Amino acid sequence: MTLRHQLVIALLVLPAPWMAGACSPGDGSSDGSTDVHGAEVTVNALTEAPTGFDGLTNGFATQAAMDEAAAVFTQIEDVGDGLGPVYNRQSCRDCHNNPVVGGSSDVTELRVGHFNGTIFVEPPGGSLIQDRAIDPAIQEVVPPGNEVRALRISLNLFGGGFVEAIADSTLASLAANQPAAQRGSLIQVPVLEAAGHTRAGRFGWKDQHPSLLTCAAVEYLDEIGITTPLLPVEETSNGNSVAAFDHVPDPEDADGSDLAALTLFMRSLKAPPVDATRAATASAQRGSNLFNQIGCAVCHVRSIATAPAGTVINGGAFTVPPALGDKIIHPLCDFLLHNIGTGDGIVQNGGQSTRNQIRTACLWGVRTRPHLMHDGQSATLTEAIGRHANQAATARANFNNLSATSKQDVLNFLSSL
Ligand code: HEC
Ligand code: HEC
Q1: For residues 319 and 307, is the Cβ–Cβ distance under 8 A?
Q2: φ and ψ at 151, to 5 degrees?
Q3: How many angstroms is it from 204 CA to the middle of ligand 1?
């Protein structure tokens, strides 16, 4: 990372209350990061990442390539294509389409397991219980003795290419600069496309994935039941083989071309735009300041810089291109795991200590989400804030102590995002 980037990150990522006493972020050499800035030292100007729900490319790919890839993202898979045998939906678009293709949705999925008093134990076949099957004989059910229940609502994919382009060391600096009582956890998770490599997790409610290609492979298999060169083995039905029902040779996406298209599409998505009219109101602007003052921005980080163009990430599998590097994004997110009392009891890639941790919800685009929090069970912003406890208890108390007008200012600010 260049000095200039370090300085800008120091200015950008630190919420106002902590800036005064903050020391400069580390040099990124001690965080286990596999991200390497391979080229000569560059001093590129940082620019704002493009935003929009307009279906136009952020510059990563040409518009024609993005449109072609969008057709793969929206295609409906059927049994002849390799759908299932166990699956959740037939297209990426079924769950990532609000307000436009690539967004989120009201669809939730179910994870279950057993807490034996010490550790979380997955049922046979894994914690994800697929909702659908191509034959009733292999319909998954919740096996007895699995009392842990977790719903996970779908996530917005806008701006994902920029999130992928954040250096591990930047996320480590964010954590290091948070007050100890609110400090988030950064976990290292496997990069499927670079066997043997790990990288800081940043995708999924549990930070269980490090890259968009890894996400595409996992989602194609888990949600739709399509095997790929990265994950060539079908999911089971409660641990039992579904081979008798699987008539398409694996990997079903034999040459990985669908996987490449899904990844290209996601990397080309612009960041979510704010509603400029709402954001310009005096109330929303007061709310924006209050959001910082009462400590929300400790976790819901306002601005983050992506790594310089030329940085090699994803265990060597991807080099940050100019369209995604040296960009400032406003995710209102630290991409770290926190225990705010909503933890769902599930362990994925982060080890037992993450059982009751959830990734900070990114508030960019939150106005497009009528169902809030990881389980989608909060119907209003006020309800979502009311569920913040433990590491976020102080921020919630600060919010509760605001006057009715100031509370409304914060809500109006959130509704502009
Ligand atoms: C059945 C609904 C469903 C389908 C179909 C689906 N997803 Fe998802 N997606 C989700 C849910 C739910 C999550 C959050 C899961 C979690 O973290 O537990 C998610 C998360 C993601 C993420 C992580 C986003 C982030 O910001 O952390 C990516 C990337 C993604 N999906 C891509 C895809 C792609 C590509 C496809 C098609 C191959 C797809 N999804 C199909 C429901 C779905
Ligand atoms: C210690 C970190 C932390 C602090 C401080 C914090 N939050 Fe959160 N916030 C989270 C996490 C983690 C989630 C996701 C929890 C879940 O889904 O179970 C979340 C979720 C949310 C959501 C739901 C968004 C969605 O898309 O589902 C809103 C709204 C929100 N926070 C607003 C606030 C506001 C306003 C404040 C200040 C009063 C605040 N948060 C302070 C960590 C924090």
Answers
A1: no
A2: -100, 140
A3: 8
Tell which atom from ligand 2 comes closest to the C-alpha of 372. Answer: 27
Q: What angle do CA 369, 177, 196 make, to 5 degrees?
A: 75
Q: Is the CB of 220 under 6 A from ligand 1?
A: yes
What's the average pLDDT block by block, 10 residues per block, for the chain (417 residues)? 42 38 33 47 82 98 98 98 98 98 98 97 97 98 97 98 98 98 98 98 98 98 98 98 96 98 98 98 98 98 98 98 98 98 96 97 98 98 98 98 98 98
Answer yes or no: pTM beyond 0.70.
yes
For 396, other C-beta atoms within 10 Å of its C-beta total 20
Q: What residues does each domain of the chain span? A: 3-414
- Residue 373 CB less than 6 A away from ligand 2: yes
Q: Is the CB of 298 under 6 A from ligand 2?
A: yes
Contact 412, 284 (CB under 8 A): yes
What lies within 8 Å, CB to CB, of 280 at 6+ separation is none
CA atoms within 13 A on the CB side of 168: 25
Q: Compute the distance from residue 120 Cα to the ligand 1 centre, in Å.
A: 23
The two tokens of residue 353 are 């200590």
